[in-house]
Amino acid sequence: MRLLARTTRSVSLTEAGEQLLQRLRPALAEVAETLEDISGKRDKAAGRLRLLVPRLAIRSVLAPKLGEFHREYPDITLDIVTDDSRRDIVAEGFDAGIHFGEYIQKDMIAQRVSSDHRPAIVGSSSYFKTHARPKLPRDLLKHQCINFRHGSTGLYRWEFEKGRKSLSVGVHGPLIVDDLALVIQAALDGVGLAFITEQEVADQLANGKLIRVLQDWCQPYPGFYLYYPSRRQQTAAMAALIRVLRVTGP
């Protein structure tokens, strides 16, 4: 059916075209209002942000900033899924994720949200009363160590670096856990040695409840980054989250 009448100088509606337009005008107006509303939300810090975050980053990155974020941006809802595995945030409908810098794909935009981390090998004074302190990473094979499971990726191999030397050690011991608090408690109770970031046990190292070893083999590595697809236009809500979480420097 012909809807438009065209000449070399003008275009006008036919009777059928005019009738169709009158019927569709309310729906077209609703579409226009919806598009305008969506466009406006890009400029307003409001709406929902769905985030994928590993448990290690929940306590050190998100938890300290949640109160500040809510006070500054009360119209934004954070929908946080905690998972240690490296999932595809685009395929699974997440707006952004947080993970260690080394794990983020190059086609993502990444913003630093924590300082660099430095590992610490620690044990209690009671443990070292019956075990010699390791001097080299390979000495750990003679020690009781607390293994940590990173989701579906399996047991973490302890990584070390000194100068140009780098190596990893698959340790053994009486305990395998996937909870950071349990790692710290087990180390305090003398179950074995633990591999953990120095930030997590700063108080215990300061008060002498935990003793650090192999410090010269523990070099800093990139901390956590907030990342999202480079092809996705940044919304005002995402910009607000970056503003609150972002840190500068090492």
Return the CATH class of the largest domain.
Alpha Beta
Q: Domain count, please report it.
A: 3
Q: Structural class given helices, strands, pairing?
A: alpha/beta
Task: Report the C-alpha radius of gyration, rounded.
Answer: 27 Å
Q: What is the percentage of strand-forming residues?
A: 25-35%
User: Mean pLDDT across all residues, rounded?
Assistant: 88
Count of separate DSSP helical elements: 7
Main sheet?
A: 5 strands, mixed
- Write down the secondary-structure element order: EEHEHHEEEEHEEEEHEHEEH
Give the termini distance in whole angstroms. 67 Å
CATH architecture call of the largest domain: 3-Layer(aba) Sandwich
Helical residue percent? 25-40%
CATH topology of the largest domain: D-Maltodextrin-Binding Protein, domain 2
Give me the count of strands: 14
Overall outline: elongated
Key descriptive features of the protein:
five-stranded mixed sheet; D-Maltodextrin-Binding Protein, domain 2; alpha/beta; 3 domains; 250 residues
Description:
The radius of gyration is 27 Å and the shape is elongated. It contains seven helices and 14 strands. With 250 residues, the protein is α/β, with parallel strands linked by helices.
Compact overview of the structure:
This protein is of the alpha/beta class and 250 residues long.
